[in-house]
Amino acid sequence: MNDVLYRLYNITKDLRHLVLAQIFVKPCFLGLLAVKANSLSNLDVNTHIPIVIGTQMRYEVTGHPLYKEIATFFIDMVNSSHTYATGGTSINEL
Ligand SMILES: *[C@@H]1O[C@H](CO)[C@@H](O)[C@H](O)[C@H]1NC(C)=O
Ligand SMILES: *[C@@H]1O[C@H](CO)[C@@H](O)[C@H](O)[C@H]1NC(C)=O
Fold first, then answer.
1. Atom of ligand 1 nearest to the CA of 7
2. How far apart are the C-alpha atoms of 56 and 64, rounded to whole Å?
3. Rounded to two decimals, what is the model's pTM?
4. How do the domains of the chain map onto residue ranges?
5. For atom 14 of ligand 2, which residue has the closest CA?
């Protein structure tokens, strides 16, 4: 939803769409990524990937570098230390 609303904001330039997107960002998750904390342990990563995709879209729409840093940190962490040979990325995905 945050991804869609950022895309909509980019088209409409209506700040209500940008504000509405914030409802779907789960600050307790993105906040830890923003301070580069490993927040993925015991988390179902797949259900959080859409939030990060939306965060990357926020960067692309607003140009704010923090959101690119968050998305880049997330994918680097998943790719470097949270991916199993089977392709799973978190608990119960072996
Ligand atoms: C945002 O809108 C501009 C202008 O229409 C467009 O060029 C750009 O590709 C859009 N960005 C995204 C991420 O969709
Ligand atoms: C994931 O890690 C591999 C091995 O280091 C690397 O080749 C690949 O480019 C990385 N992918 C991403 C999306 O960072």
1. 14
2. 10
3. 0.87
4. 2-80
5. 76
Contact yes or no for 70/33 (Cβ under 8 A)? yes
Ligand 1: residues with CB < 6 A are 7, 10, 60-61
Measured CA to CA, the distance from residue 21 to residue 54 in angstroms comes to 9
The phi and psi torsions of 25 (rounded to 5 degrees) equal: -95, -10
What CA–CA distance (Å, rounded) separates 49 from 6? 16
Say if residues 51 and 25 touch (Cβ distance below 8 Å).
yes
- What pLDDT score was predicted for residue 93? 64
C-alpha 21/C-alpha 48 separation (Å) is 15
Low-confidence stretches of the chain (pLDDT beneath 70): 91-94
Three-class DSSP category at 64: coil
**pLDDT for the residue 94:** 53
